[in-house]
Design goal:
globular; about 70% helix; Zinc Finger, Delta Prime, domain 3; 11 helices; about 200 residues; mainly alpha
């Protein structure tokens, strides 16, 4: 941010905007880091980024994906695209969720209690409840595949062509988001293995 009086004005605007909400502040700083290169930001750049809150917010998209709401996810992605949201921001949000799920799962496998693993990964609020519900559903293989997909879509967003993936960045983001969404909505592995109490006689 700018120094001196301009910097103080910018900091005050930012503080007023997030109203002491550390999660909101963290999200806004993530957004700024993705939209602008490293270096000093002007008041106008910060004001434009912070006030341009899309009707279909990327962080609400994250919650819809983790909740397994496939139709809502598709509508939100279409809305974000129509409103000119940056593909890199949408990809970052989805891939960060996948990485966090993998890190928490790994920590649990090493014996760390779920609440501690979530806290270590700074997962709280609505996402904390969603993670608690969906982690039992996700296998190691599923998370590895999702991480690989996120890596491929990162290339597509940066203009690379990836075999067996759409060349269009938004189509690739749709595929990644719905892949994670369906994994989160699937029955847990343990539920699949529970035998039925009743058997049909042959």
């Amino acid at each position: 941010m700018s120094a001196g009086e301009e910097g103080q004005r910018t900091l005050q605007f930012f503080a007023d905007r997030v109203e002491g909400n550390l999660l909101a502040a963290h999200q806004e700083i993530q957004k700024l880091s993705l939209l602008h290169p490293a270096g000093e930001l002007s008041f106008e750049q910060i004001e434009s980024a912070v006030l341009n809150v899309a009707r279909y917010d990327v962080f609400k998209l994250s919650e819809a994906v983790l909740a397994g709401q496939a139709m809502r996810v598709q509508r939100m992605l279409d809305g974000l695209q129509a409103e000119g949201e940056a593909e890199v921001l949408v990809h970052y949000t989805l891939s960060e969720d996948i990485r966090a799920l993998k890190r928490v799962k790994d920590a649990m496998r090493q014996g760390k209690p779920l609440p501690m693993a979530l806290r270590d990964q700074r997962v709280w609020g609505v996402k904390e409840r969603l993670f608690e519900r969906i982690l039992p559903r996700l296998t190691e293989a599923t998370l590895v595949n999702l991480l690989h997909s996120a890596h491929q879509v990162d290339g597509i967003v940066k203009g690379l062509k990836i075999p067996e993936w759409p060349a269009d960045a938004w189509q690739a983001l749709h595929r990644l988001a719905l892949g994670l969404c369906h994994a989160c909505a699937a029955p847990s592995a343990s539920a699949k293995m529970v035998p039925s109490r009743h058997r049909v006689s042959p």
